[in-house]
């Protein structure tokens, strides 16, 4: 009798595990793995902590790529896009993680999520500043896509000049780290997805400066206001504060590493079903940050197969207009 009961319990456990997304299954299987004690102290759902599921998937990805010889970097990254972008004390929510196990180092920094779009009469998938409700891997969606990534070689581009505190003009040359994806995120290059500092030049005009190495063929450079939008949203890329971006560029310079972004499509859909049925996420082995789930209600994943045709139809309806030219600067 006891043997039959034990067999039934085992079958039920296996059914529960295989009902989860594939990556969640690997988490369940390796939950009691070789997590070092110092790192275990950073696991949780509080401020500056990483959720167990997110850490397990990030470690599994990193260890797989290390074993395959694809990366040698002593550090790896993770992001929990279900967490709030703002903290309880009014600061930036820290939900991007830099983990260097050989150095026993764990850091949590802020990171933006994709702001999404509203397509007149077709779809509205805009995200608020604090919590992300909408996710997608569709081209042109401007949304975050969770899953597996590996960093690529950093590229830098000139964005324009701005007035520095010294009164002199300074150049904004912004590094960009492209992400190469797999599976659902395999179109990351197509989407121009990567990471960069959340800074840009706004309100620019054209300044005559033929001696500048960044001058165009007519000898002009853009000059505008430097804007830090670390507390805002992105166009689907991962955006960090300038300080955080510098640290990440230094870590990945000439040494690719892994980045795991949570949640994946299967996670989002499983959580949405559980919310609709009024079921407990923890009992089902699912995870979403409780504060953000309360705020957004039900998360949604927009599959590229359904959203990209909508975006294409919208684009075709837009009138063709020549690119806007910047005005000439006055008083300089």
Description:
It is a single chain. 27% of the residues lie in helices and 26% in strands. It has a single domain (29-317), classed as L,D-transpeptidase catalytic domain-like (Beta Barrel). It has helices spanning 2-18, 22-29, 37-40, 52-67, 242-252, 265-277, 290-296, 304-317; strands spanning 76-80, 94-100, 105-110, 118-119, 123-124, 134-136, 147-151, 155-163, 169-181, 194-197, 199-208, 220-228, 238-240, 258-262, 300-302. Strands 1, 2, 3, 7, 8, 9, 10, 11, 12, 13 and 14 form an 11-stranded mixed beta sheet that branches. The protein is an alpha/beta fold and 332 residues long. Helix 2 packs across helix 4. It is built from 8 helices and 15 strands. The protein starts with a helix and ends in a 15-residue tail after the last helix.
Brief rundown of the structure:
This is YkuD domain-containing protein. This protein has 332 residues and is α/β, with parallel strands linked by helices. The chain contains 8 helices and 15 strands.
What's the SSE blueprint?
Elements: H1 2-18, H2 22-29, H3 37-40, H4 52-67, E1 76-80, E2 94-100, E3 105-110, E4 118-119, E5 123-124, E6 134-136, E7 147-151, E8 155-163, E9 169-181, E10 194-197, E11 199-208, E12 220-228, E13 238-240, H5 242-252, E14 258-262, H6 265-277, H7 290-296, E15 300-302, H8 304-317
Parallel strand pairs: 1-14, 6-15, 8-12, 10-13
Antiparallel strand pairs: 1-2, 2-3, 4-5, 7-9, 7-14, 8-9, 9-10, 11-12
Helix pairs in contact: 2-4
Instruction: Tell me the strand percentage band.
Output: 25-35%
Domains (count):
1
CATH class: Mainly Beta
- Sketch the topology as an H/E string, one letter per element: HHHHEEEEEEEEEEEEEHEHHEH
CATH architecture: Beta Barrel
Q: Whole-number average pLDDT?
A: 89
Specify the structural class: alpha/beta
Main β-sheet: number of strands, strand sense, barrel status? 11 strands, mixed
From the N-terminal CA to the C-terminal CA, the straight-line distance is 90 Å
How many beta strands in the DSSP annotation? 15
- The helix content is 25-40%
CATH topology-level name: L,D-transpeptidase catalytic domain-like
Question: What do we call the CATH homologous superfamily?
Answer: L,D-transpeptidase catalytic domain-like
Give start-end ranges of low-pLDDT stretches: 1-32
Q: What global shape is seen?
A: globular
**Tally of helical segments:** 8
Gyration radius from CA atoms, angstroms: 22 Å
Keywords: Signal
Protein name: YkuD domain-containing protein
Signal peptide: 1-24
Organism: Thiorhodovibrio winogradskyi
């Amino acid at each position: 009798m006891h043997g039959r009961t034990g067999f039934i319990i085992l079958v039920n456990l296996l059914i529960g595990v295989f009902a989860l997304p594939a990556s969640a299954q690997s988490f369940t299987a390796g939950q009691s793995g070789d997590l070092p004690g110092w790192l275990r102290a950073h696991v949780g759902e509080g401020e500056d902590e990483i959720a167990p599921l997110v850490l397990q998937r990030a470690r599994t990805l990193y260890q797989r790529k290390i074993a395959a010889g694809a990366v040698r970097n002593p550090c790896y990254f993770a992001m929990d896009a279900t967490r709030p972008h703002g903290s309880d004390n009014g600061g930036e929510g820290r939900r991007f993680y830099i983990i260097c196990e050989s150095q026993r180092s764990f850091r949590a920094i802020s990171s933006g999520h994709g702001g999404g779009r509203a397509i007149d009469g077709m779809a509205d998938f805009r995200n608020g500043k604090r919590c992300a409700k909408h996710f997608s891997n569709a081209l042109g969606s401007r949304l975050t896509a969770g899953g597996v990534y590996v960093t690529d070689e950093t590229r830098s581009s000139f964005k324009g000049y701005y007035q520095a505190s010294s009164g002199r003009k300074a150049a904004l040359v912004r590094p960009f780290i492209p992400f190469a994806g797999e599976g659902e995120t395999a179109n990351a290059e197509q989407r121009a997805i990567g990471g960069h500092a959340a800074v840009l030049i706004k309100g620019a005009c054209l300044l005559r400066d033929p001696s500048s190495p960044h001058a165009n063929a007519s000898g002009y450079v853009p000059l505008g206001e430097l804007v830090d939008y670390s507390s805002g949203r992105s166009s689907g890329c991962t955006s960090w504060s300038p300080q955080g971006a510098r640290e990440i560029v230094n870590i990945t310079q000439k040494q690719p590493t892994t980045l795991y972004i949570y949640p994946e499509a299967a996670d989002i859909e499983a959580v949405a079903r559980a919310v609709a049925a009024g079921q407990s996420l923890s009992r089902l082995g699912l995870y979403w940050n409780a504060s953000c789930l309360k705020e957004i209600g039900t998360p949604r994943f927009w599959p590229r197969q359904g959203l990209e045709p909508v975006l294409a139809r919208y684009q075709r309806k837009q009138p063709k207009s020549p690119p806007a030219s910047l005005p000439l600067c006055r008083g300089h």
